[in-house]
Amino acid sequence: MSAVELLEVNHEKFTLVLGGVDLVHKTPILDIKPYVPYSDRIPEAENRMAPAKPTPRPVRYTQEALANITDEFQSLVTDTLALDPRPAYHEDDREYGVTLEGWNIRWKADGEGILVLSVRRG
After folding, report:
1. What pLDDT digit, counting tens, does each position of 15-62 carry?
2. 15 lies in a domain?
3. In a domain, 74, yes or no
4. Is 77 exposed, middle or buried, given 0-12, 13-18 or 19+ CB atoms closer than 10 A?
5. Cβ contact 94:81 at 8 Å
6. pTM of the model
7. For residue 103, which of 80, 75, 79, 69 has the smallest C-alpha distance?
8. Closest Cα to residue 79, out of 110, 116, 47?
9. Is 68 inside a domain boundary?
């Protein structure tokens, strides 16, 4: 369940335009209810999967990675990888990959944080 912003109602196409959604492309929205502050707020609710805000890890770059990256894009990569997006079953010596804005980012985690190995287009 997610709270989203209703941006527009298109009565001709019977569609809603929503903002702030956290969905994978083409995920169906099955049920929509209005947010009612006096009844929807659950102050004692807890989330055992993510009980606390993650602590960012230091991000370092190899010379190869730095050769292909702008300062602005490096900031995006750093912000993304600092949150250590490895799956819960991660392996410490494994190399991981993620695509950001059409760039293939290869990286691994070690005792010092995250090491970006390469940044390549496509």
Report:
1. 888 888 888 877 888 888 877 777 777 777 676 767 778 889 999 999
2. no
3. yes
4. buried
5. no
6. 0.61
7. 69
8. 116
9. yes
How many domains are there within the chain?
Answer: 1
Token readout for 35 is 């947010």
Ramachandran region, residue 112 (left: φ > 0; alpha: ψ -120 to 50; beta: rest): alpha
User: 114: domain range?
Assistant: 59-121
Residue 76 lies in a domain: yes
- Segment 68-83 shows an average pLDDT of 93
Report the C-alpha dihedral over residues 15, 21, 27, 31, rounded to 10 degrees. Answer: -60
CA-nearest of 81, 121, 117 to 104 is: 121
